[in-house]
Amino acid sequence: WLPVPNFRRSQGVLNSSLMLLLGVGMVMFFPSHRSLERSVARLYPVNAVEYLRGHPAPGPMFNEYLWGGYLIWKLSPRHPVFIDGRADLYEHAGVFADYVHIMALTPHTLFLLRKYSIQSCLLARKDPLVSLLAALPGWRREYEDDVSVLYVRKSTNPPSDSPAPGLSASIKRSCSPGKTRPHFHLRPAEE
Fold this sequence. Notes:
Layout: H1 7-29, H2 33-43, H3 46-54, E1 61-63, H4 68-75, H5 87-93, H6 95-103, H7 109-115, E2 120-124, H8 128-135, E3 139-144, E4 148-153, E5 167-173, E6 182-188
Parallel strand pairs: 1-2
Antiparallel strand pairs: 2-4, 3-4, 5-6
Helix pairs in contact: 6-7
């Protein structure tokens, strides 16, 4: 007859070998601190946050939805955010819907910026709102990098946001019961 193998002894050796292999694999393939910082800097306004620490922007500040948690982590309580990833909290107050209207450049965009007394906007460079703010004389670009742009109102008293030269605005109010939001229609100025 053949002797019965002792699996207990070989099981311990096998488990130890697997744990060692797993540990070596984690050390070799886990991203370094520098690699993690580069990844964060590609997705979040790391440099803009550093700028804001030294040059605080007037508030309230409008911000990207996806950046809200990062901004809370890095700037709170000095710079409260307009919105962050907790959409369920903001939706009940209607803030999330207003955020969507602002970012989509609906006819209510300028009205909503005034409604919330927004004095600065930290946005991704490719957001359409960046182009609108660049065209408005009441806003100035305060900071820009590869990821983000910071716009600040030129005056702390929110003016009526009139379009830049070359554009004319026709404002018509739709005053059905319960609705008093203006509709802005921008069209090229007639020369």
